[in-house]
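Re: beginner question about structure tokens

> Can someone show what the tokenized structure looks like for a real chain? I only ever see the sequence side.

Sure, here's an example I had lying around. Input first:
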Amino acid sequence: MKSFLPALGALVLVGSGASALYAPAVAAGEMCGNLPATIVVPADQGNTPAEGTAGADVIYVVGTAEVRGLGGNDVICGPANAPASTAGHWFGGDGDDTLTSTSASLTGGEGNDTLTGSAGTLEGGAGNDVLTGNGATALTGGDGDDSLTSTTATLDGGAGNDILSGAGKALDGGAGNDQVRGGNGDNTVLGGAGDDVLWGGPGTDTLDPGDGIDMIHASGRDRIKVGATGRTTIDATTRTIDGPGGRDTYTGAPTIWAPDATDETFIGSNRADVFVSGGGADLVYGSAGNDRLTAVQPTRLEGGPGDDEITVAFGGRVRAGAGDDRVRTLLATDDAPGVKAQPFNIEGNTGDDVVYAASLTTAGAVVNPAPADQLWSGRVRGGGGWDRLVFTPTRQGVTASMATNQATWAGGTMTLSGLQALWGTPGNDVLTGNGGRNSLLGGAGDDQLNGNGGRDDLRGSSGFDRLDGGTSIDRCRGEIKTACER
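And the corresponding structure tokens:
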């Protein structure tokens, strides 16, 4: 590669390979903005790299060449709307360079550079750079206080106090005090280290503030990711997240998502809060709203006064609130022998609560558990309302009695109290009421339903079912009915 000082007019590269020389341009009038070109790289340049000079060059690129501006404050451009087939890679080099292309990848290098491209990648390098890349695939600021904007590319600010604006992609502020704004689409917005300000945008965004004291502007169906290390307290009333990296503040009513955290406390607000945790050892307190709370082996989870949707996995302690709550328990698929989940301890309250026992995370999982497997154990206690225990989708059938307060099935056992209704499985169930008013639903399979005392409602559903209403006046729907008045 050779470079030559420009003459009074523009220079054009002629020849190829090591013999390539710059000569006065035959065609006049090539411009980069309002600046006349001092060097023109022709279409037949091929793969031979072209270089500018140590000074301030204005380089007009027609072909697909690799172009290096070298020293000075260079301007490099090409034809407007150049096709993708003319893609190359342009390097500004040292100095405050301006690179504009519709087809090439652009790298600024040292200095405060301005890069505008609609294809490939844009990389600022050291210095305070401005990158605009609608149509590009990736923008990287590098060191310095950079500004990155694109509706198509992933954005990485790098070190420095950066401003990022993107849409539908990953936006990472990197180290420094950054401002990261998501636009249309579902964005992943990361603050990184430093005191950052994050915006989600109109879509369903994931906002991860990282370390530092951050401000998070969430809206709609956005979720805020809570870090995995150290003790963290999330207070939805004050909209604050206190963790080892500092206190973050947020707006809106987003989902609080802690997939890997193992020591967090969530305090709900009067709004409809959504909290999802995957690490275990949680303290979760809902409040007056209709909350959706999910935790893995929580130390304690309380629903609060609203009508809540509660999901717990692999055991834990749950107390429903005063509203009409639904509590779901989840188990994972594991074919290894000797599998044992932690006990569940589920307690209803004054509302009409529904507990779903042994709901499996994979349909049809644990169809034939080994004798040593204990996949569900614990206690379900109703409260003051009309409380129902639902066994789905366990396929082997269940034996459950509100008279003896026991339930057993393949891979599970529990103690019952304070319930009014039992719903069975797709298998062959034996469900028994107590002396009060009960509701028994067999589900699919050949079921045996025993009402016992009280005015009972027994429904066998599909299968060949046997129903015994017991004493009092009972309603029965099934194939064989005994002591059923209606």
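Each token stands for a local structural state, so reading them left to right follows the chain. The longest strand covers residues 354-360.
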